[in-house]
Amino acid sequence: MTDFEQNIWERYGPSTDTDSPAPGESTRRLVLTPASAIEPEPVIWAWEPEQGEGRIPAGALTLAAGREGTGKSSFGIWLAAQLSLGKLPGSFFGKPRTVFYAAVEDSWSRTLVPRLMAAGADLNYVYRVEAQDILRGETMISLPLDVELIEQAIAEYGAAALIVDPLMSTLGSGTDAHRTQDVRQALEPLVRMAERTKALTLGIAHFNKASGSDASQLISGSGAFKDLARAIIAFARDPEGEQQVMTQTKNSLGRLLDLPSLGYRIEGTDIHTPKGVANVGRLEWTGIAERSVEDTLAASGDRGDVTERDEAATWLRDYLTDNGGEALVKDIKKSAAADDIAERTLERAKKKIGASTVRRGFGQGAVWRLPATDGDSPSPFPPQSRHSRQAVGVGGNGGNEGG
To answer: Which CATH number fits domain 306-371: 1.10.10, 1.20.58, 3.90.930, 1.10.1740?
Structure first.
């Protein structure tokens, strides 16, 4: 340590006095570290489909954002499945790794586990993450309250990733998601935890109801969400290309402008369970997309001129498609309420798209189902081979192969 550094340390460094501070004495001190004492290191990419094309960094917060029904939750499931199999191209490739998954809106038994099965995940490596309160029992994790517990669990299980769906719902009580200071206080400990653990940290985020083509600016809540994230991946439905599109709209640690957008679709898949067949959505990559998320938002005008019912109809159709064509009514209404869609408007939207109500067995609840299509009609999408999917720089197979 140089004389200058020693002087800085003595003036601003932590006190050597181990006794409690005297009344009125500040409990805070500056910690100054010269840049020469910090060892530089390269970015670690958790998802790097091709050399030099890192999309999701390890050790940083990434947001997956879009409107309801665009497949961002299915992307989180795909990501968890690939990590559990050791198939995600990047720093975790070649060795199955533990994934922590915190989900607020979907049922684990009826939705998430069947989706993971459809994606080919090794269920032994994917863990539901909840907190347990002495007074309240099991409850959703709360940020920043549970960050220390999460970090301890990541170290104990050697977890490669924490996926939170949706991120906004985990902010602690009293946190205003639209106030920058509140969001920073809630998420900065999570960001620092990601840096220390080198874990992929993915938060699912919704778009707000504003119109526009700047996907990062459409993320609900305070601008602190996009500011704290080092990477943002946006999702949208292409009204002209009969597919959905994923675009990297922020990549602070790597390439951005020349990263290609990727096309995908959500395929309905039957999963056999001990209690019957569950039909869920599964993400399938279709290749490099000609249009970006910004292009699709601009082409549709982000639908600022449509009625609330039309918006709700599009939302409901996308939601049901993302869930394999049907979903429990109570889950639909809960998600719709979270996106500010009134129940009366939702009922009108159901009629507009021709969805039907199907009664399940006792205690299972009713579902809304999209109208059936002609089963003899050929699919507009050609089957994708594993080779063709990997060739476009996606990696993995969307859960088409097990193990």
So the answer is: 1.10.10
What are 60-106's pLDDT values in tens digits? 999 999 988 899 999 999 999 999 999 999 999 999 999 999 998 88
3-class secondary-structure state, position 285 = strand
The per-residue DSSP string of 145-208 comes to TTHHHHHHHHHHHTEEEEEEESSGGGBPTT--TT-HHHHHHHHHHHHHHHHHHT-EEEEEEEB-
| Other beta carbons within 10 Å of 102 | 24
198: which residues sit within 8 A by CB, 6+ positions away? 44, 58, 59
Contact (CB, 8 A) for 292 and 245? yes
Largest CA distance in the chain: 81
pTM for this model (two decimals): 0.72
How many whole angstroms from its chain centre is CA 266? 16
CA angle 111, 396, 232 (to 5 degrees): 75
**DSSP state string for 329-384:** HHHHHHHHHHTT--HHHHHHHHHHHT-EEEE-STTT-EEEEPPP--TTSPPSSPPP
Sketch the domain layout of the chain as residue ranges.
45-292, 306-371
Is residue 343 within 8 A of residue 333, CB to CB? The reply is: yes
> Which residues have C-beta within 8 Å of that of residue 275, sequence separation ≥ 6?
none
User: Per-residue pLDDT tens for 337-386?
Assistant: 766 687 878 888 898 899 999 887 666 678 999 987 543 333 333 333 33
> Per-residue DSSP letters for 215-275?
GGGGBSS-THHHHH-SEEEEEEEETTTTEEEEEEEEETTS--TTSPPEEEEEEEEEEEETT
CA neighbor of 188 nearest in space, from 33, 28, 60? 60
The domain made up of 45-292 has a fold known as Rossmann fold (3.40.50)
CA distance 88 to 103: 21
CA 131 to centroid of chain Cα atoms? 19
Cβ proximity of 63 and 229 under 8 Å: yes
Q: What is the dihedral of CA 121, 66, 128, 102, to 10 degrees?
A: 150
Cross-strand pairs, 243: 238
Q: Do domains 45-292 and 306-371 have the same CATH topology?
A: no
